Amino acid sequence: MNKFQIYIEVKLKLNALEEERKKLEMELFDEDWEGLNYHKTSQGTLFYSSRKSYEYSTAVEKQKELLSRLKKTEELTGVAILEKETSFITFKPNNEN
Q1: Are 71 and 79 in contact (CB under 8 A)?
Q2: CA pair distance 26, 44, nearest whole angstrom
Q3: Which end of the chain is more exposed for a tag (fewer CB within 10 A), N or C?
Q4: DSSP string, 52-64
Q5: Is 37:48 a contact under the CB 8 Å cutoff?
Q6: Distance (Å, rounded) from C-alpha 89 to C-alpha 34?
Q7: pTM of the model
Q8: How far apart are CA 53 and CA 76, in angstroms?
Q9: What is the phi/psi pair of residue 55, to 5°?
């Protein structure tokens, strides 16, 4: 097997493990956390956290859209300074759309 094939095999295994992790995570929400937001084990500590998400007014969304356009304009005109560039490899299995 070449490096491309090995990478694909590893990625497929990781995808399967990630699906299993997500399922277990959903089941953990229903577990008894004994009134705490953490659960200690010999391997480490699990934390139960939550994050709030808000829907903003039309006025705020318009400002957000305007800011996004202004940022893009600065990127295209060279006014914005490139802070960093991140490279990554993705793999899409044939059975996904």
Answers
A1: no
A2: 19
A3: C
A4: ------HHHHHHH
A5: yes
A6: 41
A7: 0.63
A8: 31
A9: -105, 125
Assign 3-class secondary structure to 69-93: HHHHHHHHHCCCCCCCCCCCCCCCC
In the block, which residue shows the tokens 């808000």? 54
Place of tokens 């277990």: 24
Eight-state DSSP code of residue 53: -
- Amino acid of residue 97: N
Would you write out the chain's pLDDT as a tens digit for each of its 97 residues?
Answer: 899 999 999 999 999 999 999 999 999 988 888 888 898 889 999 898 999 999 999 999 999 999 999 999 999 999 999 999 999 888 788 875 5
In contact, 42 and 50? CB cutoff 8 Å: no
